[in-house]
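Subject: for your reference before the review

Hello V.,

The reviewers asked for a structural picture of the protein, and I figured it would be easier to keep everything in one thread rather than splitting it across files. Below is the amino acid sequence we used in the manuscript, unchanged from the supplementary table.
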Amino acid sequence: MASQDRRVFNLKEFGIKRGLSFGHYRYNSVKPGLEIHRHQGALEICFCMKGQQYYKIGEQLYELNGNDIFVVPPDTWHSTGEFPEDKGELFWLQILLDSSVGKLCNMPKKQSDFLLNALLDKSQHIFKGSFQLKFILEKLVDHLGKVDSMLSRIMVGQLITQLLLETVILSKKSQQSPPSIKLNTLDKYIQKHLFRIIYVDEMANVVGMSTGYFKAWFKKEAGMPPKEYVNRLKVEQAKIDLRTTETVTEVAFGLGFASSQYFATTFKKFTGATPKSYRRMHRE
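And here is what came back from the structure prediction:
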């Protein structure tokens, strides 16, 4: 285990012979990106609960949002590309494919092979999670924190089996990949008005919803609150503007931020760099 906002567990210590690690982070600000690495003989399942996370495999970049699942195939070099580890919450599980190492959570080989092959079929594809999955993941963190408890050691195996089974079931569901018409309408509206403050109630009005219902609907659809979504789009535009405009203050006011200090705080939260340092790195 590491710090409170990031915990990593060695599954072999809990008798999971084909387990490598199970991890969880909940960050309030961005952290340095993942360097390029691979997991020898093991697939990795990533459960993005909140915020965004990027994975780069070869030249392909994958963007995960809240409630997305992504499977990294074994022996595959991957990183977060040029992106940091984002503000938000993510779980990951690494499982060895080699059955000669031992049984997977005491399952017969035929059953474990079925689950792992189904996940391999979905590797390098993004698919949606469920509330049930979050419940299992949180229970798993809780029991992994009780290393000396025999009951928890038994529960860890049961929960990993349940987690794999639920993930396979979700991977086989038809995915709503195209964004909804309402989200497309909002995207166009936000892009058109990026130069000023965009209020949540006006966004709700654009798609004909009450503000309360809109907040819940938007978080479910986009994986984050509407205000955070708008700020992320502003930061992406700021990355472009910082290369060409004269001052950081000019960029801040040009995107509707009340002060350059608030802009700098928001920019650093989503990129890990200050506007000045970002400009310096991308102008040299």
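For the response letter, the relevant points are probably these. Residues 150-171 form the longest helix (22 residues). The mean pLDDT is 88.

Happy to draft the paragraph if you're swamped.

O.
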